[in-house]
Amino acid sequence: MKKRTELARRRFLAGGLGAAGALTLSGCDRLTQTEWFPSVLGAAEKLTEKAQHLIAPRRAMAQEFTAADLSPDFRSNGTAVPASSQYAELAKAGFADYQLEVDGLVERPAKLSLAEVRALPSRTQITRHDCVEGWSAIGKWKGARLSAVLDLVQPKPQARFLVFHCADPMEDDGSSPYYESIDLEDARHEQTLLAYELNDTVLPVPNGAPLRLRVERQLGYKQAKFIMRIELVESFAHIRGGKGGYWEDEGYEWWAGI
Fold this sequence. Notes:
Blueprint: H1 2-13, H2 36-44, H3 49-55, H4 85-92, E1 99-104, E2 110-113, H5 114-118, E3 122-130, E4 136-145, H6 146-153, E5 161-169, E6 177-183, H7 184-187, E7 193-198, E8 201-202, E9 212-214, E10 227-233
Parallel strand pairs: 1-10
Antiparallel strand pairs: 1-2, 3-4, 4-7, 5-6, 5-10, 7-8, 7-9
């Protein structure tokens, strides 16, 4: 029941931000209170990945803001607290025993503690999060550059995608943990992070602790939270529905660029 209700709600609200991505204004919370902004979101999802690339090349930077533009509250998107006993134990201990597993098509599989992730080259950025449900917020993120993780594990030549396996189950019975994916090009983008801080504080659980993906030029459902494992693969064929993400398996677009 949980899945059907959530899917129906999301399909009704679903939309991209291709047209809205050109907006250059602060105080984006106010946009979500207007009647016209959500309709802009709905129209943009029809853009193809090819069209998106013509509008804004993959290497283009997402707009960055100043501290004065920060939203007063950065709400939680998706799951607020994973219904997972394993995750609950990790959170209770302050993620002291957490390990990020990175494997698949890599030369040097790794298991990294949170301290080891924090020791990697990092980046801090103030960016806008655009949710498929029609709201946006501006937050300050700090995290390890995903490119630094790739440099550490050394992807094999046939590796094309990174799959993020997460701790939050999407069904009431504890099954179907959330997963998402991006390609190597987006993974090496300067603004793509494994974020561990939000607004100068340790990343809160509702926002994805201990690590969440920030791939700033894509919509919110691509920003995987509660990351437990990163798997490098050549294709999605052997993973769940074969579309590269939980919501993609339900009909969402894999490329959610803005």
